[in-house]
Write a structure and sequence with these properties.
This protein has 304 residues and is an alpha+beta fold. It contains nine helices and nine strands. The strands form two sheets. Strands 1-2-3-4-5-6-9 form a seven-stranded antiparallel beta sheet. A two-stranded antiparallel sheet has the order 7-8. Helix 3 runs antiparallel to helix 5 (197-222). The radius of gyration is 19 Å and the shape is globular.
């Protein structure tokens, strides 16, 4: 097993952040990212890059963070209690994109690396990450191309990689109080280390590099689709599901808050505008109803 090298991981993550921002700026064609660097009193810091009020993206945030601490937070040790009391180093790139046009899906991606240390013991490390898609007015073509991109990047890592991480994504981004998925899924992985540092790092890089390859064609196809106030209001209502998941279930949000991370950067994932409506029910046979009946449940999209 190769030795973990956090400096190499950090260099990749910083480069990935820059490349994704450049790609998103090109897709938007109007606004640019503004960078906001921050430091954490307990150790580490990061840089948040946010684009607002663009031609295509209402808000897009691409964050890099690298934090250290004397003990692992509860969110990280809940399923790994043996790590309690170890010092830690955590770094990653996390992004959330909220487009203006309701026909363009919201999306989220992140890739991350953790290493926990204890004197007299071997370091414990792992990679995690993934990406997922949250449409409001879904197109089957977009969902299939999204999952095909995910499958393609997984292929060099074995036949079991895509179905395993696709299933994990469906299970992770599930809102039990709503009995629905947050969107149409993608990939989710965590605790990746069994195949050694080099191969695990290669997979994390493939996921990070594959994000724009999967998302950019969808934006290009839908950015000029006409919409009205009805579609806009439904988009704002469905954004509420994003807020519910991130504040109630998301481990990354909990980890950031429990480690004393920068609140503005952690909550960058929140949409700039959102609404809730009591007991909303879509009209039968409507495009809004089709989202609920056909898309907000795990499916084998590549068999359709």
């Amino acid at each position: 097993m190769s030795t973990p090298d956090s400096a190499v991981v950090k260099a990749f993550l910083l480069d990935l952040q820059s490349r994704i921002c450049i790609g998103l700026q090109a897709l938007d064609g109007s606004a640019e990212f503004v960078e906001d660097s921050w430091k954490r009193e307990e150790g580490g810091g990061g840089q948040s890059r946010v684009l607002t009020n663009g031609a295509v993206f209402e808000q897009a945030g691409v964050n890099f963070s690298h934090v250290t601490g004397a003990s692992m937070p509860a969110s990280a040790t809940a399923h790994r209690p043996e790590l309690a009391g170890r010092s830690f180093e955590a770094m990653g790139v996390s992004l959330v994109i909220h487009p203006k046009n309701p026909h363009i899906p919201t999306t989220h991606a992140n890739v991350r690396f953790f290493i926990a240390q204890k004197e007299g013991a071997d370091p414990v490390w792992w990679f995690g990450g993934g990406f997922d898609l949250t449409p409001y007015y879904p197109y089957l073509e977009d969902v299939v191309s999204w999952h095909q991109s995910a499958k393609t990047l997984c292929e060099p890592f074995g036949d079991e990689a895509y179905p395993k991480y696709k299933k994990w994504c469906d299970e992770y981004f599930w809102l039990p109080h709503r009995n629905e998925t947050r969107g149409v899924g993608g990939l989710f992985f965590d605790d990746l280390n069994k195949q050694g540092f080099d191969k695990s790092f290669n997979f994390m890089q493939a996921v990070g590099n594959g994000f724009l390859t999967a998302y950019a064609p969808i934006v290009e196809r839908r950015k000029d689709t006409e919409y009205g106030e009805h579609e806009r209001q439904f988009q704002l209502y469905r954004r509420g599901r994003y807020v519910e998941f991130n504040l109630v279930y998301d481990r990354g949000t909990l980890f950031g808050l429990q480690t004393g991370g920068r609140t503005e950067s952690i909550l960058m994932s929140m949409p700039p505008l959102v609404r809730w409506e009591y007991a909303y029910t879509p009209e039968a046979g409507s495009p809004e109803a089709a989202l609920y009946s056909d898309y907000l449940k795990p499916r084998d999209w590549l068999s359709l």
